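User: Please predict the structure of the protein below. I'd like the answer in structure-token form so I can feed it into my own downstream comparison script.

Assistant: Understood. Taking the following sequence of 186 residues as input:
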Amino acid sequence: MKQVIHICLFLIGLNINLFAQSQSSNGPVKIKIETTLGNMVAVLYDDTPLHRDNFVKNIKEGVYKDLLFHRVIKEFMIQGGDPDSKNAPAEKVLGNGSLGYTIPAEFKTNHYHKKGVLAMARQGDDVNPKKESSSCQFYIVHGKVFEDNVLTMMEDRFNQQTRNQIFNEFLMKTENAEWLKKAQDA
């Protein structure tokens, strides 16, 4: 069955303001994202300084003023920050706008996609092997909320698949043939 992802133009005016005017102050940098449907507050991670500083620079320069969230995927994310979305007509294809540079990757194992996370967008690995981020486009993870019992079931299924794979790899090794023969004879 072919799965269809519905992507729509989310006509929400977007303004982002900086709470903390300086990254040098104590505490994390907080931003306020103002939309026509309500406001959101985000905290920018200190351990991704290139991304944090670029986002702050964009805010101070007014890059995000009056832009649109141009991409919405239900139970996944909303994306904005395309400079081409300012005053864009409804038929304009959005999502390719840039400020002319990219940001080097700053992946951290303690940061992962979960509901509410704000992250910089990037092109796929096939055209972007360095995994560099967009200079201005970002997304906010909406995410699907799972009940605890569903998460437990998913974890159990994954763990069983992993155990099966390890066991099958063990059985395929020639040095384990004698052990396998004894087990079959028992």
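That's the full token string. The radius of gyration is 23 Å.
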